[in-house]
Amino acid sequence: MESKPRVKEYMTHEVSTVSPDDSVDEVTRRIVESEGHNGFPVCRELTVKGFVTARDLLAADSETPISAVMTPDILVADPEMAVTDAARVILRSGIQKLPVVDDEGRLIGILSNTDVVRSQIERVTPEKVGKLRRSLEQIHNGVELTEERRTVSLADLTPTQERVYADELAGRRYELERGLAEPLVVIDNTGTADTDTPELYLADGHHRVLAADSLDIPEMDAYVIVLNESVDLGIAKTANKHDLTSIEDIAIVDYARHPLVETTERLQE
């Protein structure tokens, strides 16, 4: 049975902290100059003493020490805690970040609501991989298949979907910018061929690769199904039929042109 994802697997290990002796002015400046920080754990020699947010600083004098405005009695998590349990704590308490401590109360990481969302997104992919693998095993009986997690170059991928939709592409770009990208699903049909160019077919993640390409991200995390010998793949035929050789061949269409969406003007024709 698959074990539940743990906090230690998804928490951020490198955490920015402030000292109880820092002034309100110093911490305010750090929040303004940072990217995405709206608060910090307050630590003395890695021992968590509290948490301070931008709201705590609003009405305080600039020279006031953080120890006077921080919240001292805060919730913390154990690294072995299930992410789903940590998610309940975050939801019910209304916090955005949950410090993670060891048995000595020393800070070893932090789990944000974004990390929780990412953990749930990534749980979906193994199910897709399992279904695809079982399908390939049935179609290509006798061919040995293995699975691995690897980073793939977008330039090496052959798409198997001829179009993506602009609105969903914007959504995938938003997720990527916040570290929420689900891994791709790729089939490696290189087999035993002695080549510097792998035969990699993108089975799932066409919107994500175009979003990554628009953000100048050259590589992405992927679940890869590896065939020990090259076979005549159905998705390869699809790629050939639509002249798809690289992700640049994928067309981006407006949502209003989706086959299941009409405009009032067309309905009245």
UniProtKB/TrEMBL annotation:
InterPro entries: CBS_dom, CBS_dom_sf, Diverse_CBS-Domain, ParB/Sulfiredoxin_sf, ParB_N, UCP004699_CBS/ParB. Pfam families: CBS (PF00571). Residues 11-69, 70-127 form the CBS domain. Transmembrane segments: none annotated. This is IMP dehydrogenase. The lineage of its organism: Archaea, Methanobacteriati, Methanobacteriota, Stenosarchaea group, Halobacteria. It comes from Halohasta litchfieldiae. Keywords: CBS domain. PANTHER family: CBS DOMAIN-CONTAINING PROTEIN, CBS DOMAIN-CONTAINING PROTEIN CBSX3, MITOCHONDRIAL. The keyword DNA damage does not apply. CDD domains: CBS_pair_ParBc_assoc (cd04610). The keyword Methyltransferase does not apply.
